[in-house]
Amino acid sequence: xxxxxxxxxxxxxxxxxxxxxxxxxxxxxxxxxxxxxxxxxxxxxxxxxxxxxxxxxxxxxxxxxxxxxxxxxxxxxxxxxxxxxxxxxxxxxxxxxxxxxxxxxxxxxxxxxxxxxxxxxxx
Length: 123
Fold this sequence. Notes:
Shape: globular
Number of domains: 2
Number of helices: 4
Oligomer: single chain
Structural class: alpha+beta
Largest sheet: 5 strands, antiparallel
CATH topology of the largest domain: Ribosomal Protein S8, Chain: A, domain 1
Order of helices and strands: HEHEEEEEEHEEHE
Radius of gyration: 15 Å
């Protein structure tokens, strides 16, 4: 998903399309709230009325991609306690975290006193 968004912006596309999944839906919701994408639409597939697709509207500023870099965590899973999340907020970019209350940024998780698994960093 992350590579498709990044490649779509590099090639100047207005949107990219993914198969629907709940986790992807909630990650896109966080990206839209943080201003990394314009938004997204859930549409039924033309060929199959049962299949849903997510149309992600990409965002540009002065014809340049809003997303400069996406760093995924390595294959080992990295968990942070709520107190440790403040360290992530000091660096450049936004960390997206999976918590017991859903997907959110590290800042939001810190303020809600939630720990979780770091999925990726986006800047």
